[in-house]
Every structure is written in structure tokens, then in C-alpha cells.
Amino acid sequence: AAGIEVLGPTEHTIFKSIYFFDPNGHRIELAADTGTPEMYKMLDEVKWDMLNEWAETRRAPEHARWMHDGSAAH
After folding, report:
1. 31: Cβ–Cβ under 8 A, 6 or more apart, which residues?
2. Contact status, residue 39 vs residue 73, Cβ threshold 8 Å
3. C-alpha–C-alpha distance, residues 13 and 40, integer Å
4. What letter would DSSP give residue 14?
5. Of the candidates 32, 27, 5, the residue with the CA atom closest to the CA atom of residue 17
6. Which of 19, 33, 35, 71 is positioned for an S-S bond with 39, CB 3.0–4.6 A?
7. Portion of the chain with pLDDT greater than 70, in percent
């Protein structure tokens, strides 16, 4: 209603976001948690392995591939 351009909602598997610019030109993200307890349990089980792999390789770990390939648990 105020004429503010909004991008989204964008699906991030465990949350959804919308993006817009505030009057000073800063990009703002508002996010809503949509993850399930099962999703958070799966992430919790691999968090240290993911961090250790990232520290060694500086590449995105594959431990949570389900978050990006459409096979997320619901």
C-alpha cells in the first residue's frame, strides 16, 4: 500500500523471507521460521561435521543437501 517494492517470499526450506529497502536504502530481510522439529534434528546431527568440512575445504558441505535439492523432510 505504501509503494514499497518487495522481493519474495523466498523459500529457504527451514524459513521464508521477504526483502525490501528501507527509506535510507538499507536492504532489509524479514524471515519466518517454517522448519519442522525433524529438520532441525537432522541439521543438529551434522552441524559439527559441516563446520569442520568447511574449515578444511572452504566449500559448501553436502551434509544438508536435502535443504537445496527438494527432498526436505516435512
Report:
1. 12, 15, 16, 17
2. yes
3. 11
4. S
5. 32
6. 35
7. 97
